[in-house]
């Protein structure tokens, strides 16, 4: 890897640190990961920072999510919100880092665009946690999974429509 521009150094530092922070949020939730697992996530996070467009990033983020899912079983803890923020920051920083070579400065407009998108995605996290916690212990209504799948399909279709027609490509 060649010398990094200051902007590239900053976003890649976020890529390297945030998955580990997301993993360590489980300590606050009462389930500390073993040292070997933290070390594995840290090593993969460094690889993710070095090669932000590689599959290493998918692997490290899946490992963190798997620890939250398997380590906490329930996963419904307020510490999930900062963990979600850390995972989102790692992902978005990798997206920005992958836009150009190591020495290319990070375009401030591009960074602001991805920060806005990230905030728009993140604001849902605390709301979902509160709704989920309020529904804890109640039986799931019939068809809830199909309704969720339909809602996801509508959201993806609407986003695709806006993306294509908003740019004048459609």
Structure description:
There is one protein chain. With 170 residues, the chain is an all-alpha fold. The chain folds into two domains: 6-138, no CATH class; 140-170. The protein contains seven helices and no strands. The protein has helices at 6-28, 35-50, 56-71, 80-97, 108-122, 124-135, 144-166. α1 runs antiparallel to α2 (35-50), α1 (6-28) packs antiparallel against α4 (80-97) and α2 packs antiparallel against α3. The longest helix is centred in the first third of the chain and has 23 residues, at 6-28. The N and C termini lie far apart (39 Å). The mean pLDDT is 88.
Binned strand content:
under 5%
Q: What oligomeric state best describes the polypeptide chains here?
A: single chain
- Give the total of beta strands: 0
Measured between the Cα atoms of the first and last residue, the distance is: 39 Å
Work out the radius of gyration: 18 Å
Q: What class do helices, strands and sheet pairing give?
A: mainly alpha
The number of domains is 2
Quick structural summary:
The chain is mainly alpha-helical and 170 residues long. 72% of the residues lie in helices and 0% in strands. The protein has two domains: 6-138, no CATH class; 140-170.
Structural topology:
Elements: H1 6-28, H2 35-50, H3 56-71, H4 80-97, H5 108-122, H6 124-135, H7 144-166
Helix pairs in contact: 1-2, 1-3, 1-4, 2-3, 3-4, 4-5
């Amino acid at each position: 890897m060649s010398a990094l521009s200051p902007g590239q150094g900053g976003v890649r530092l976020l890529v390297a640190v945030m998955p580990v922070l997301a993993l360590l949020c489980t300590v606050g939730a009462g389930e500390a990961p073993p040292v070997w697992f933290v070390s594995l996530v840290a090593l993969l996070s460094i690889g993710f920072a070095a090669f932000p467009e590689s599959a290493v990033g998918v692997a490290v983020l899946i490992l963190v999510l798997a620890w939250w899912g398997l380590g906490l079983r329930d996963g419904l803890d307020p510490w999930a919100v900062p963990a979600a923020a850390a995972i989102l920051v790692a992902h978005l920083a990798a997206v920005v880092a992958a836009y150009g070579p190591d020495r290319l400065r990070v375009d401030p407009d591009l960074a602001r665009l991805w920060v806005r998108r990230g905030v728009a995605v993140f604001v849902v996290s605390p709301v979902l946690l509160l709704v989920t916690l309020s529904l804890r212990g109640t039986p799931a209504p019939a068809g809830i999974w199909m309704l969720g799948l339909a809602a996801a399909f509508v959201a993806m279709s609407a986003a695709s429509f806006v993306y294509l027609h908003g740019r004048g490509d459609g």
